[in-house]
Amino acid sequence: MLQDLLQPAHAAGPAPRSDEPEPRTLTERAYRALRHDIVCGDLQPGQRLRVEHLKDHYGVGAGTLREALALLVSDALVTVEGQRGYRVSAVSLDDLCDLTDTRVRLETEALRQSIRLGDAGWENSVREAFAQLSVAEEGGAGRDPDQWERANRHFHETLIAGHSSPWTRHLLDILYRHGERYRHIAIRIGATPGFDRDVHAEHEGIFLAAMARQEARAALALEAHIRLTCDILTRQADAAAGGGFKLA
């Protein structure tokens, strides 16, 4: 089971994105901190979120924490169980496959539209985003995960910035968070034989096709890139079920 790949609880992940504006309220600050800890795995899937315990850890009152948890429920990162309180949303291969299929449909179409409609300003922004991402990827296994995650997210957001649908961007923002959550699981098995990948080459293929205005080629490269995390975790789960390598 995918849940088995999460043990033991991993070390603290990268700090929250430094490119986000400063939180305007205590609720927003608590929301971001909780979101970060869920995405990075410091708060484990299925974990009970007890307001009376967490309010001191996050330095806010019980009412503020409940407001933050309600925002996370709307993001599907937290579930509410009636009178029994809140839990971190579970993970599963079925959920990952559904998430991946949905993100592929939305993001590849947004990329196609951006390639058709994007102007010279869009091209320059994509070039700059890819250059920043390339710098973040130069360190290979020793790269700064916080820097890479910011650059990776910025690259994906810039690629679809030529598409003028606010709903698409909003939905993809939520899907990206969930994909990032699963990616942290994949990172833990990144050094496992048979599961290596050249992420920079994947990004470069998407970038070159987009700059050449080859929308079909770019969409296919982006789809393969998004699906690979799902494929890696599916194979790893199968190997673990068959007595192969298992994170324990």
Category by helix and strand content: mainly alpha
The low-confidence parts are 4-18, 243-248
Distance between the termini: 12 Å
Mean pLDDT: 84
Q: Report the count of strand segments.
A: 3
In which order are the strands of the major sheet placed?
1-3-2
* CATH topology group of the largest domain: Four Helix Bundle (Hemerythrin (Met), subunit A)
Overall number of structural domains: 2
Q: Characterize the biggest β-sheet.
A: 3 strands, antiparallel
CATH class call of the largest domain: Mainly Alpha
Task: Tell me the CATH architecture of the largest domain.
Answer: Up-down Bundle
**Computed Rg:** 19 Å
Helix and strand element order: HEHHEEHHHHHH
Tally of DSSP helical segments: 9
Identify the CATH homologous superfamily of the largest domain. Answer: GntR ligand-binding domain-like
The outline comes out as globular
User: What level of helicity do the residues show?
Assistant: 55-70%
> Roughly what fraction of the amino acids lie in strands?
under 5%
Protein traits:
globular, DNA-binding transcription factor activity, 2 domains, 248 residues, Four Helix Bundle (Hemerythrin (Met), subunit A), GntR_C, Arc Repressor Mutant, subunit A, mainly alpha, transcription, 63% helix, three-stranded antiparallel beta sheet
